[in-house]
């Protein structure tokens, strides 16, 4: 009997607790806290946030009762030339900025960024996308990272290079020790001075890698036959860092499918590392055209892989068609090398192979421009 009574009491208690939980879950967060209405009014009237956004922030910082700091923060950003849109974006991204000390915390960070050449509207635009920068330690993060980056970039009076690096938003508030360690490691691999600055501008994320990842990347470049400390090692390192191992293997296998040995493939990529960035479609079309249509020997592509990076539609094929017309006209005493023809500038080619033959100039222009305009229309469609 006693057991049954206890069981019934427990059932009643559970029903009461369930009812309370249901009541609490139905209570709107927007009405849960009403003690800091002054902050809500500040956020809706001054920052132009929606009521829901303002209530969300006020509930998150429920201990804040006064709108004094948010008002001063808004005034500071306007003083620095930020737009209302910029201010709103950064506050929604990092609302803790609202309660920062204007003179001790925010202004010094803004001044440091201004010294990099980022001012007014541009500074507002940068902060609106990288609001976290204002929540990081000035002494432990921002200043050390900035000093390391400036040392790598050297004389960058316009600040243009620095802005390029800042496209990698995390680099300003990364671990300065890792940044410095990666810089030292790359220098030990022979990537120094302007070469180091080149890597930083093109692939700043490399400087944020773990040491194990960085060493693995260097090993991949060395395995491809690039000589450590050489100029091409820097270019190879940059290109390989932007591609997965799978993509690299796919490009090598594609070239090998045309009868090139692995050594010949690697030689081509060592001579022109950016060849790895050429799409597989363009690479395949180019090799096929040069070997089977133009009938170049493989050695030509091995020694001059830049040919495969030329625009097939706007440069290679139009010039080839013009030469075919001239061959049919038998205007040459000695047929020119198509390889040399491809090295001509646009003006040189037109002068020597189109306008020079006044009797055939219309047909030559049709052969030259017809393919270019046709390919352009296809690309646009």
Q: Could you give a short description of this structure?
A:
With 381 residues, this protein is an all-alpha fold. The chain is 67% helix and 0% strand. It has helices spanning 2-26, 29-32, 37-45, 51-60, 68-79, 84-93, 102-114, 120-129, 138-153, 160-165, 176-188, 194-202, 211-223, 231-241, 245-256, 262-271, 280-293, 298-303, 312-329, 338-343, 346-353, 361-380.
Question: Any idea what the shape is?
Answer: elongated
Number of strands: 0
What proportion of the residues form beta strands (DSSP E)? under 5%
* Order of H and E elements: HHHHHHHHHHHHHHHHHHHHHH
Q: What structural class is derived from the secondary structure elements?
A: mainly alpha
Rg, Å, rounded: 32 Å
- Which residues form runs of ≥5 with pLDDT under 50? 1-35, 374-381
Q: What percent of residues adopt helix (DSSP H or I)?
A: 55-70%
Number of helices: 22
How many angstroms separate the termini?
85 Å
Q: Please summarize the sheet with the most strands.
A: none
Integer tally of domains: 4
What number is the mean pLDDT?
84
Structural notes for this entry:
- InterPro entries: MTERF, MTERF_sf.
- Keywords: Transcription, Transcription regulation, Transcription termination, Transit peptide.
- This protein is mostly helical and 381 residues long.
- The protein has four domains: 36-132, no CATH class; 136-242, no CATH class; 244-306, no CATH class; 310-372.
- Helix content is 67%, strand content 0%.
- The chain is built from 22 helices and no strands.
- The chain has helices at 2-26, 29-32, 37-45, 51-60, 68-79, 84-93, 102-114, 120-129, 138-153, 160-165, 176-188, 194-202, 211-223, 231-241, 245-256, 262-271, 280-293, 298-303, 312-329, 338-343, 346-353, 361-380.
- Helix 15 (245-256) packs parallel to helix 17 (280-293).
- The longest helix is centred in the first third of the chain and has 25 residues, at 2-26.
- It is elongated.
- The model is unreliable at 1-35 and 374-381 (pLDDT under 50).
